[in-house]
Specification:
alpha/beta; Rossmann fold; 6-stranded mixed β-sheet; 4-stranded antiparallel β-sheet; 10 helices; 10 strands; globular; binds adenosine-5'-diphosphate; binds magnesium ion
């Protein structure tokens, strides 16, 4: 299994639960979409997968394994995976770029670290990839610093860095969120093309179901730090059963990048279903989150799921 997350719980230092308990698995070559509106815990989950939680967030239960290695335990096995078999394209390019390093230095850093590959050899090897990403590879360009690039170029540079050690799994955390609408589709097309050519597995984070439909086979829908629905992308788009999924779908059809509404702060989340207060289907039993209808295996967690065949 490429990824195996079991019973993961993340909390703030004051004990407030931010995510979980959450289970997730990803098979080799599989393309999983992680969807949910802003604040639902997508980036925290990604950070947990890399064993790189932000200060102030603690893992209080569960296990996170990638390629059989515990990512929640520091050590050389984990260090060997990060940026090598398991690569990451961040939400903001600045999360992956060091402002003090030239492009050549950024690009040669990971292969140097993970494969002891000399800088000149790395740059020669990456030439065709840079060309595919429409990034010049002449010395003058590579001597630039990140702030001298456009937003689109910076994100394409992040993609080149993520692919620089030929990963088996690429994790993209809303990679187009920081881009202008005009270059968003361009980045998506490039990332999709490269993913397909290399047969890469991917975990693609987005709040836009329209994007997820293009890039994934399977979807996991998060709301308020909890998994509310999961399954094949075609099934979720045709017959969403959790009201949260239906809501995301409606939002993506109206206007792809539209913010989909108000999610309570972690400390203000209800005891029951996190979507309960906003849900048009809610009934009193939804205040009790523990039992849910449907078998645990089908990934749906809702007491009043939308009927089969009834779209949003
Ligand atoms: N470093 C942090 N300290 C405390 N709370 C955090 C931290 N990072 C994220 N959170 C909280 O965790 C929740 C999930 O955040 P995040 O994973 O960034 O959401 P998403 O990526 O789905 O938009 C939010 O309520 C956010 O405020
Ligand atoms: Mg995020």
């Amino acid at each position: 299994m490429v990824l195996a997350v079991e019973g993961l719980v993340l909390r703030r230092r004051d004990g407030v639960r931010l995510l979980g308990p959450l289970d997730l698995t990803l098979a080799p070559g599989e393309r999983l979409g992680l969807v949910g509106e802003s604040g639902s815990g997508k980036s925290l989950l990604v950070q947990a997968l890399f064993g790189a939680l932000p200060p102030g967030v603690l893992q209080t239960a569960g296990r996170v394994r990638a390629f059989g290695v515990a990512m929640d335990q520091p050590g050389p096995a984990r260090d060997r995976l990060r940026g090598a078999r398991l690569a990451w394209v961040p939400q903001q390019p600045d999360q992956a770029l060091n402002p003090l390093l030239t492009l050549a230095e950024q690009l040669t850093l990971l292969p140097g670290l993970q494969r002891q590959e000399p800088p000149r050899a790395v740059l020669a090897r990456l030439g065709p990839l840079l060309a595919r990403l429409r990034l010049p590879s002449d010395p003058a360009f590579l001597a630039r610093f990140p702030h001298q690039l456009s937003g689109g170029q910076r994100q394409r540079l992040c993609l080149a860095m993520a692919l620089s050690c030929d990963p088996e799994l690429l994790v993209l955390d809303e990679p187009t969120a920081a881009l202008d609408a005009s270059v968003r589709q361009d980045f998506l097309d490039l990332a999709l093309e490269l993913r397909r050519e290399r047969g890469l597995g991917c975990l693609w984070v987005t709040h836009d179901l329209a994007v997820a439909a293009d890039v994934c086979d399977r979807l996991l829908v998060l709301y308020g730090g909890e998994r509310v629905e999961a399954g094949p992308v075609t099934r979720l788009l045709e017959t969403p059963r959790h009201p949260t999924t239906a809501r995301l779908l409606a939002a993506s059809r109206r206007e792809p990048s539209r913010e989909t509404g108000f999610l309570p702060a972690p400390q203000d989340r209800p005891v029951g279903c996190p979507f309960g207060p906003r849900c048009p289907q809610a009934q009193t039993s939804c205040l009790d989150w523990a039992p849910w209808r449907g078998t645990p295996g089908d990934g749906l967690r809702c007491q009043r799921p939308l009927a089969e065949g009834i779209g949003p």
